[in-house]
Inverse folding.
């Protein structure tokens, strides 16, 4: 009888020990994941997530790229109609411009990522228990790096987010350091569409060009005018005679070096005569995603081509 009692006691202790180890394992797992988590958002607000989000809806093409770049692609259940990269993202008819809370809720998300809080979307979703992360357009490269890290944290991939930010920064710094340094600053015109809307040095894209010491013909007396997105006239562009022309309207508007050369009076421009018209991917040139490295490399190649020709 004593043997039976002893055996029962040993078994009870063993089970208790296993339960304690399982409990410790679960606690360690929860601690390792970093949740519950409270982060400061780009607008200075606070976002608290009780657990790692497993069903994410992205209504921002840039955010979609970030989510996949930090390794959270498997958690994404739906993206908006403009999210075209990566190609295997679950693209839907959801709109980031006119978001519908009802249609978003159909995907039962525990986190929605947007670049603008249209019609107080975050407050509406909060009422049904869905958290919203707002990632506004980056104003500087440092803003973009910070968002890479933030996306990594809120999705349970903090190390990947930090690595992405550090790696992107290093790649850009190396490209810029290796690029030629013209004795006289080269001038450029960045075209958003064929009606001559452009950017100034005050914008995120303008600051990328500034890394190479390029001078923007759209800056004028006040680079912040029109929010940094003025519309120039053909006469103004011809008068400025830029060394480089970058076309960020190849996809949206069908522009190309050939169409530019056919514009009245543009055949006299230095950039046109020397073949320094660069066709960009509209998406890469308009997003603050990790693919900004591709834009930086394209600009570096353009500067090197001008210097090599000189």
């Amino acid at each position: 009888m004593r043997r039976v009692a002893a055996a029962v006691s040993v078994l009870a202790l063993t089970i208790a020990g296993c339960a304690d180890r399982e409990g410790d394992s679960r606690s360690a797992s929860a601690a390792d994941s970093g949740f519950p988590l409270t982060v400061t958002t780009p607008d200075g607000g606070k976002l608290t997530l009780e657990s790692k989000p497993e069903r994410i809806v992205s209504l921002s093409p840039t955010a979609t790229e970030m989510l996949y770049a930090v390794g959270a692609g498997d958690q994404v259940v739906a993206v908006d109609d403009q999210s075209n990269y990566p190609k295997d993202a679950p693209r839907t008819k959801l709109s980031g411009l006119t978001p519908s809370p009802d249609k978003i809720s159909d995907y039962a998300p525990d986190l929605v990522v947007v670049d603008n809080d249209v019609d107080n979307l975050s407050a509406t979703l909060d009422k049904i228990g869905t958290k919203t992360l707002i990632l506004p357009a980056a104003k500087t490269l440092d803003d973009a790096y910070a968002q890479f890290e933030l996306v990594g944290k809120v999705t349970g991939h903090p190390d990947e987010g930090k690595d992405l930010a550090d790696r992107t920064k290093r790649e850009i710094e190396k490209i810029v350091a290796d690029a030629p340094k013209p004795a006289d600053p080269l001038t450029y015109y960045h075209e958003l569409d064929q009606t001559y809307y452009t950017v100034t040095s005050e914008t995120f894209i303008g600051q990328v060009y500034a890394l190479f010491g390029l001078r923007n013909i759209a800056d004028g007396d006040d680079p912040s005018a029109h929010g940094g997105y003025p519309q120039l006239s053909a006469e103004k562009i011809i008068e400025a005679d830029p060394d480089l022309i970058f076309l960020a309207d190849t996809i949206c508007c069908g522009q190309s070096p050939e169409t530019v050369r056919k514009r009245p009076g543009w055949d006299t421009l230095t950039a046109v005569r020397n073949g320094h018209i660069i066709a960009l991917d509209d998406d890469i040139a308009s997003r603050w995603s990790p693919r900004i490295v591709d834009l930086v490399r394209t600009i570096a190649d353009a500067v090197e081509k001008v210097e090599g020709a000189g």
